[in-house]
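Reviewer 2 asked us to include a model.

Predict the structure of this chain.
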Amino acid sequence: MTSPGVGHLMGAYFHQDYALDCGDDLGAADAFVADEPEMSESLVSDIVETLKMYRTSGEMKEYLLQQGCAYYPSRFDGDYVAWLAALRDHVLQADHPHGPQ
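Predicted model (structure tokens):
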């Protein structure tokens, strides 16, 4: 399965120099939303579908690495599933800063 939003987010925003460009993982997600408004509209649903397809951290890591991800989710003890779920939640919060509409 290929998710266009997740694939582009990983390859273009979580490359090996993401920290120089964005500061941290949440900054990279924010940059994606700001820079890619058309793709960011479907990003949450793309993440949800990706979370359904790759349920273990190992499966998710393999998929995200194939998409060009160079980020290691150390604040989640290397759990790529928990990290991607946190990115989903962050993007949702950014879309609706006062909660779901």
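The chain has one domain: 4-95. The two ends are 30 Å apart (CA to CA). We have added this to the supplementary material.
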